[in-house]
Fold these 4 entries.
Entry 1:
Amino acid sequence: MNQPVTRFAPSPTGYLHIGGARTALFNWLYARGRGGKFLLRIEDTDRARSTPEATEAILKGLAWLGLDWDGEPISQFERADRHAEVARAMLENGTAYKCFATQDEIEAFREAARAEGKSTLYQSPWRDAAPETHPDAPFVIRLRAPRDGETIVEDQVQGRVTIGNAQLDDMVLLRSDGTPTYMLAVVVDDHDMGVTHVIRGDDHLNNAARQSQIYHAMGWDLPIWAHIPLIHGPDGKKLSKRHGALGVEEYAAMGYPPAAMRNYLARLGWSHGDDELFTDAQATEWFDLGGIGKSPARLDFKKFENVCQWHIAQMEDAALLRDIETYLAAASQPALSQSQKDGLKSALYCTKDRAKSLPELLMKAAFALNERPIKPDEKALGALDNVSRGILKSLTAQLQNATWTREGLETLIGAVAEAHETKLGKLAAPLRAALSGQTVSPSVFDMMLVLGRDESIARLTDATVGAD
């Protein structure tokens, strides 16, 4: 088989929806796994609703998700002349015709059909009218669709879908003002772009039958169709704002890693055995259309967070730091200083294992980001009573000459606890409060190794000022 060409074709009327992101991902995975091309087309023919801001939001969303496309994005609106050219070619070859019916006449036809209990699909009296009877009046160009028989869509997900041609009308290809309709534009663009596989939501399944008729009318090869089920909320209903975040940019601002989002979205409606957690390399190798189910997938935030936790733990430190910087920018938070970056990098080994999001990771690593003097929160202050501060003061003096390894620190702190007739676990709470200002943090030994001797001693000295 020749190398596949897929495309993602969003309308720039808002943000990149989570459903659109998954459609883009499926197209990207299919193309990238087979050495093909993944193209981007902006379907901006609806000039009243399309905005440059929405286009920018879609491009940013795809870039955040890590889905690179080949070549420049194509504007559907800018190709209107080509769409009209094809409509006129169909007029020439007899697969389309001029229709002079007015809106009032079409509505009158439908009202009469309703009254008689007949189909309201418009049947134009101009379909077989002789050219010499054509008036000098505005007209649309309609497809001369077959009236009998069936149109069959061989779909890689839905199977064979058969639609009776009696259920399909002679759709308008070119409006009376010369502008093309969406149905025509999509087919012409897909053909001209060399798209071999149309992978999109199953809300377009009926469109595939109508669009197939245009392909046949022009004598063009049909693409391979794959109509994927939509994403539903946890309650099984169509995804909406009541289910939470819908736009990719919202997930970026909440601090979820793009790699985890790719993994999770890939599993929404597609499966490879029982594999739940996988890398991009595995996803591109495994992804195929046969693994896509017919039923709608359900968004499950708990499962998504588990995927995030796995990816954060697996990620290379350099990649994780880049994702954190991207998150801070997306959330409109201050960037990290160089010293904070250095501290965070040192702390990742003991903070990234169980974090379910980047904000959670930063919270765990706060001890390495905050500067002296550390201000303990209310709960941590409770651990720094006079007795505890006295023990910490004794420990601080001995840390000057301690062997700065986990084993050396464990031995010394254990000995200090024993000398004061307490347990290591009891001493850990005030030590944690002094070093991090919190009651929840990585182990005190990890924190001391990350902070180093001088900073650890300085924080303990701050916390024990005035202790006996």
Entry 2:
Amino acid sequence: MSATAQGKQVVSRLTAAIRHFLPDIVYGSNDGIVTTFAVVCGVVGADLSSRVVLILGFANLVADGFSMGASNFLARRSYADPVDRADGREAARHGSATTLGFVFAGIVPLVAYVVAVPEGGRFTVAVALTAFSLFTVGAARSFVTLQGWVRSGGEMLAVGAAAAAVAFAVGAVAAALTGS
């Protein structure tokens, strides 16, 4: 087999794998970005320190990322019909794809709190990075859904923005009710 043919075969397998696992990656990425950013918004809404953002953000990233992957594994093993039920190895691959998507995308809202960004600008940078990430991951959905990338990205951005607004409001209300 020629090098060109081998290259095409590798690209074909990679494309097939991406299409197969993209829903899991998008699912994990969306939840990772949204839940981690919700933590950031809740902490900022409650007017707590950047240290609290990092502690709660990373705790969420690790625990919820594992939980999402484990839940995907269990869901794929929960079909009544054995024909539809994934074997343990395949379910683990899907769970791993979800976990990796969650952790790699979910770290984005925390970047502004890890790198040297002035204290007063961290939340603004986190908002911008999160919006960009939500749109980008949403646009990637178009490879599977065959919908336009702008529509797919915009849809995910809108859902994530709504979740962030709710988290910010809850943080602000909780802070007001507790006198913080």
Entry 3:
Amino acid sequence: MTAGTVDGQAAGTLRHKIILAAADVLEKDGLDAMSTRAVAARAGVFPPTIFRVFGDKDGLLEELGEYGLETYLQAKSRLPRSEDPVADLRLAWDLHVEFGLKQPAYYVLVFERSRSGRLSRAGHRAIAELQHMVVRVAAAGRLRMSVERATAVMHAAGVGVVSTLISTPAESRDLETARVVREVVLDAIAAPPTAREESTGPGAGPAGPAMALRVALGTEGDLPFSPGEKLLFMELLNRLADVRTGTS
């Protein structure tokens, strides 16, 4: 093996060839059929080549998950960005459900198959994209809890719904379930537009103003705080935001 080559082939070309072969195995035969031997046979290489390129089977699955998720993330990036960040979250939820039902094998690989007790890299990318959208809700002063908790709630509910639908025979699936859960989740994490004007009134919770302030401070470059003071202040804002949704 020379620099930039593996088994006499250009490393990048060989990597892409193996990923395409793994995708073919996954899409045609399912995740249970995903073995290094099956992928090697489909790619026309020897099994040890996969370990030379990806390190191990988990390395191959990580890159396969990213390959499968790329189309979904591209579609998500093209979603219209309106003046209503909650409406945008609604569209993102529907796209998430659509991806799971159209590409169930990739969905399980990215969001459900735990490797060494951790989420896949592709799954982390998807959650990061979701958190960016939740931050917009916070900036609008409409979040009922911290950004992190709202992101976790929406992710957990979304994965739960899609996993349930995937495991249900197609003819028995009730897609209304996904829409009902979507509205329950959005109502739990976000206040309606009119609530912003009422957010400082009697009995109003601190989450909306706290998260709006957190986002505003996060975009402000020159603050009279040391790094430690800023970290403490952000933690206190999170605790204020979550005081009504659980422990503080």
Entry 4:
Amino acid sequence: MVNKNTGLFSGVMSGALWGLDTALTGIILSSSPFIETPKAILLAPFVSAFLHDMFSSLWMFLYMIVTKQLKQVIKALKTRSGKYICIAALFGGPIGMASYLLAIKYIGAGYTASISAIYPAVGAFWAYLFLKEKLSKRAFLGLIISITSVIILGYSPDKIENSNYLLGFGLALVCVLGWSLESVICAYGMKEDEVGPTQALQIRQLVSALFYGIIIIPMIGGIGLSGEAITSNLSILICITALVGTASYIFYYTAIDSIGPVKATGLNITYCIWAIIFDIVILGSDITLKLILCSILIIIGSIMVSKN
């Protein structure tokens, strides 16, 4: 029971903190040097994601030193489980997030958010297929309610660019594939207890940051902008945001390990609501009837998924 309660609490916290991370990232992307030139605006999401994971990896490195887990991380990298975590990192970080950001470019944030919200359902399918997890009828209904509510909430037809719809739609589906596989592969990797949640997260963030830094950022010509961002006043906010994101990931991976990927993603999906709440609190955004209704339905759906 303690393990289950820890998992449920961790799932809720992962969503809340990722919502805060999203709101803070919105502030970062609308600040200098990310808005100074058209090229900077285009590269901003990729550079921001790279710096986020890089600083997050450093935060995790400090955490590993303080909790004396560094040796276990090095040892874990050599295990079969550690290799699965590395694969999960590529699916969740560069593949999932890069596809998400590119999809936003082609079909807009509303459609991309709507499509990507399907990832828990796809994750449930992978968990059923590979981990032999079963969903009760109530949990399945809760998952449908949550996903449908997020789709309604994110639906913004005015933001779509028709000429690039098929490309953007395909990229959003790649994002769904990446995020759904990440949770299931991580769960499989941690199943044998060779790698703990925090050790898995250190490996995940390190692999993601290295992949961004060595391959994606040089490939898109973002080295200069990355340097500008690190040396600007914005670096402090990026560091803080990465810390919030790291805490969210720790809770998310703990939830995956404690209650499984299906329930963990069912609670984590509430990040969209938390993001809007923090947007209202921090930036003073308006509250709409659609927001209130969808918020209630997403929370109800998430409880149905997480409760046996």
